[in-house]
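Hello Y.,

Per our agreement to keep a running log of every chain we model this quarter, I'm adding this entry. I've kept the format consistent with earlier entries: sequence first, then predicted structure.
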Amino acid sequence: MTPSTSLSSTASEASPLLPLEPKPSAQNDRRVIRHILVFVTILQMAYSFTAVSMLYVIRQMTCEEHYKTSENAGESAYHPSVDRCNIGEVESASATAITALGTVTTVFAVVNLFYARWTIETYSFRASLIQQACWPVVRLVCQMIAILIGRRWGVLIMCASQALSGLGGPQGYQLVANSYASSLVTSSEETAVFGQLQGCVMIGTALGYVAGGWAGTNITVSSPFQAATALTLLSIAYAVVMIRNEEKSNVSDVPHGDDQDTKNAQNSNWLSPLKVFMPRNVVDQDGKERKYTGLLITGIGIFIGVLATGFNPILLQIYATSAFSFLSEQNGYMMALNSSFRAVFLSFCFPRLVHTGRAWYARKRSSPTGAQIATAPTLNMPIDVVDFDVPQQGAGVYEEPCQPMEAEPGVHFDLVYLCISMLLDTTFTGSIALLRKPWQMYLVVGLLPLAAGSAPVSKGIITEMCEPSQKVDALSAMAILETVGFLCTTTLTGWLFAIFAENGRSYMTFVVEACIGMCAVLCLSLARFPPRGSGQPPNR
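Predicted structure for the entry above:
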């Protein structure tokens, strides 16, 4: 390979024949990741600043509309309590309005994922992050106008403004941040980095919930929206100044595959990420070709899991307001408790749990697989395109051995961890139906973070199951799957809550969620990684 090395040292950086460009040092990469973590924290805090207040504002506008209509004009006299909105009709109408808001948000969040992926391929990571933070400013201005108008039109404007999430929103910027961070670390470090990013999201969420809930209760209902606008502008300035500008050509290095795979991925249609979940043929150590469906089963299990518990952050606030008369500030403290515990767990406990669990699982499997390890060098071959002399089209059949896809035996622990985490999440969710005191809400909300590792570990599992050249597509497919699942759970759970609330049995919503969650656990227990030493057929 000496001639190839010589050519690489003399070729210019703009040369398209260069398969891999020199990357910055690991220290610079770590610095970039730290800046991404700070950016994610600030921007997520801006998003969460209005999360509690938005639900409270919609409830108040729905309540105003209920009492100001002709048939309900004199009804308020018969409800002299502190919270005149705490009646079945208003709670049901509020749940319907919040469901509509969530549906609009989720539909355009799916659009945002495709748009974010397109900006990554067309421009750069840095440009995509900045763009994802610009459009929320316009959305916040529209929402402040909606608060001034109020009542029915205020709710409609609030819901319509969420359409701007298609150009900039949490799903899009998190996809960009995950993809950027993934390009700066090795495969074995990806799951831990995903957990740290999710932890920073939770830190921003906790700070936003506390500050936004306090501001909405003690200042004005529009003050959280004003503060969120300022924080969003701050995140834009931070990204412009601190995050390294990535050249467009470097973005194609993210999949870590060959140039042809990258080119095909960029030219494919926007639905191409979902092809990651399609069953595919793999070749095991014995040379036998078999159908692998692990990605499909894992994707179905993750979708059912999101369907079961994805609406919980919003549903907990609605239920606490309805059952325990929580105000905006109390909801803010409750969700801040949940998010701060999640942040601590994901930032410090989760990476250590994954590392320790993988090491234990690798030791457990090392003894019975000694014979297989002894024969592993037959498959331990260079996997970069520069290390092969691939014949040109029509020059014969490519007969090199298949590329093994398994990174390390310990990674199988991730599936065990995902099942346990999903089971805990389901158990805690179902227990909410048994709560009768306000302090019990805080207790369960404080325990839910113990199941917070499901999202980052599922991303790590998907990226390990797929080929290295499909990592960006895999992350995009995961984000699409979670967003569509959230859309479905928003519609389903909101509809169920509205029905149960009219009958005074809103707690039954959590029982239904727990039943769905158990289906997710059963499905994920059937998922498997590709067989050890397996790879793609050479002529695929």
